């Protein structure tokens, strides 16, 4: 319990630091976002209206920086991430509500599937060295060294195009109304196949290699030898003794992978013009939409922190040594 409380205190402090840095980012960037917004829309407004925009964006020059800082915390507790410049006057929280499910479903499913398949194959490859699974390592290692976006470009060139089953861009067919019906779901799944395949192929190789090497190390430990001497079934020794202990180093990597689900596939979403958070961040950077960038950075940071907290809890469950005091 003491270990868990210490980790909670650490993550609480890290979250406070992340929010504080996120507050100062748009205030340290050169330029005036309000003036940029007005110039982009080629409009002329009164001084009163301009002051209202400063207040709306939390940049009121009549308030001290400390007051703005506490106001920003108040907005966060209300779930208010500000107003987007690009999609003015749409709130950033509404934009993230629309894009987050696309990224979480696509990258979340492929990350979990890649970890499960890669770890399972790594267990078999490390336990049964010299088998056909062990022979897959050179191929999977080569594929994992290729960046996501490059595999995506290759997939678009070879598999997408006129008359192909795989669409080349977008999250669903033009003209389809989003909703929980068969037409929309089928279209969304069809558009996600190529990006998902790209992420799965690129990520699976590292899990196989890491788990295989750990299984080779753990297989020579004394407790595995004792389990064999007891006459326990081969499958139980492999899974319950060797794989459980070999899995521990992969837990942290998996937690980080889950944390980066929100923004870790920026280039893949750009290549496929997929309507997720990564593609939205690309649009925000191109249009200097500071509030939207600020909201996305905050979501990514908090996602990584929550994922690492889950990793610590998983360590407590998998390794009894971490539950002992002193």
From TrEMBL:
GO terms for cellular component: plasma membrane. Its main location: membrane. Gene3D superfamilies: MetI-like (1.10.3720.10). It is a multi-pass membrane protein. Belongs to the binding-protein-dependent transport system permease family. PANTHER family: OLIGOPEPTIDE TRANSPORT SYSTEM PERMEASE PROTEIN. One of its GO terms (biological process) is transmembrane transport. CDD domains: TM_PBP2. This is Dipeptide/oligopeptide/nickel ABC transporter permease. Pfam families: BPD_transp_1. Residues 100-311 form the ABC transmembrane type-1 domain. Keywords: Membrane, Transmembrane, Transmembrane helix, Transport. It is found in: Cell membrane; Membrane. The chain crosses the membrane at residues 102-127, 188-209, 246-272, 292-318. SUPFAM superfamilies: MetI-like.
């Amino acid at each position: 319990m003491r270990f868990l409380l210490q980790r909670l205190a650490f993550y609480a402090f890290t979250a406070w630091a992340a929010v504080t840095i996120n507050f100062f980012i748009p205030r340290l960037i050169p330029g005036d976002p309000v003036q940029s917004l007005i110039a982009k829309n080629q409009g002329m407004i009164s001084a009163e209206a301009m002051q209202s925009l400063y207040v709306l964006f939390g940049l009121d020059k009549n308030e001290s920086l400390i007051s703005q800082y506490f106001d920003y915390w108040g907005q966060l507790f209300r779930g208010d991430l500000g107003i987007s410049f690009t999609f003015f006057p749409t709130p950033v929280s509404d934009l993230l509500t629309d894009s987050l499910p696309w990224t979480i479903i696509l990258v979340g499913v492929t990350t979990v599937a890649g970890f499960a398949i890669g770890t399972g194959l790594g267990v078999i490859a490390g336990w049964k060295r010299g088998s056909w699974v062990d022979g897959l390592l050179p191929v999977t290692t080569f594929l994992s060294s290729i960046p996501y976006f490059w595999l995506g470009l290759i997939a678009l060139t070879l598999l997408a195009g006129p008359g192909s089953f795989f669409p080349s861009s977008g999250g669903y067919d033009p003209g389809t109304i989003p909703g929980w019906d068969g037409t929309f779901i089928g279209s969304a799944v069809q558009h996600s196949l190529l990006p998902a395949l790209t992420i799965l192929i690129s990520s699976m190789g590292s899990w196989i290699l890491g788990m295989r090497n750990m299984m080779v190390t753990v297989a020579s430990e004394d407790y595995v030898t004792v389990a064999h001497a007891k006459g326990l079934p081969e499958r139980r020794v492999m899974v319950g003794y060797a794989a459980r202990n070999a899995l521990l180093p992969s837990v942290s990597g998996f937690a980080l992978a889950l944390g980066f689900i929100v923004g870790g596939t920026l280039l893949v979403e750009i290549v496929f013009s997929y309507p997720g958070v990564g593609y939205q961040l690309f649009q925000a950077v191109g249009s200097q939409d500071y509030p939207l960038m600020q909201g996305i950075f905050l979501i990514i940071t908090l996602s990584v922190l929550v994922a690492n907290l889950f990793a610590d809890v998983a360590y407590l469950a998998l390794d009894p040594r971490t539950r002992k005091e002193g």
